[in-house]
Amino acid sequence: MIDLEVEYNNRARVPEHPQIFARWVREAAHIRSQRQSEWALDIAYGSGERQRYDYLAAAGRSAGATLLFIHGGYWQSLGKSTFSQVAHGAGSHGIDVAIAGYTLCPDNTIAGIIKEIQMLIAHLAKRSSQPLVVAGHSAGGHLAAVMAACDWTVIAPDLGFDPVAAAVPISGVFDLEPLIPTSINAKLGLDAREAEAVSPLFMPAPRGKRVVCVVGGKESPEFLRQQRVFVDNWGQRGSAIRGVELEGADHFTVVDPLSDPDSDMTKAIVSLAVI
């Protein structure tokens, strides 16, 4: 029998995660300082305290989509300021980057977080009149996949275009039902019906947009299974989706290549951003 608590407890699986988090904080502060003239911080997209985003307007911006990055933390921890460094990779190629903040559980629900990210995407699309590549890590990977599946003619009909050009879910959870019996659900409050409603595995597979899913090769069997099932499911239903397993990466280091302008992950996002 699979021990779901063990499979989804990424911090226990990576005991050095406090050092990784501390490194992220240092790197984020360094990038904000190094590229200070390009950053605008804590821009409101709603009235909530955490309905804010940071925006890097890349020097020498090239034509194309903006990158939106959504942080993880199982929808209940971390924040946008820890991930400024992920803007460095794509930003070095002339791509503007927004780093999302959102109201965390238990002060919110996952359905509520989805609505907040939809609000942010509509806001950004109106700001630039350009679509976005939506990337996210862990819980953010789940949210990136959800955004790709959305019917934007219903959510934001005034836009007149689909604001999500492509998605890059990194170490995402695509079927939330396995989280229900774990301690993770204490702050999420999911039941079977709610879990299915917010799981991208059961949402319409998008057509006409590319989806690249990334998972670390050292992640738990459940995370590897989640990606495999999701890619197969959406692919069979007509989505242009592919999966990438990043050799040697765990659940946390898998996101590090986004800060490297020369990484394969950054190059993939750059190619997706060329509209």
Automatic annotation (TrEMBL):
Residues 67-176 form the Alpha/beta hydrolase fold-3 domain. It comes from the Bacteria. InterPro entries: AB_hydrolase_3, AB_hydrolase_fold, GDXG_lipolytic_enzyme. One of its GO terms (molecular function) is hydrolase activity. The keyword Hydrolase applies. Keywords: Hydrolase. The keyword Hydrolase applies. This is Alpha/beta hydrolase fold-3 domain-containing protein. It comes from Candidatus Raskinella chloraquaticus.
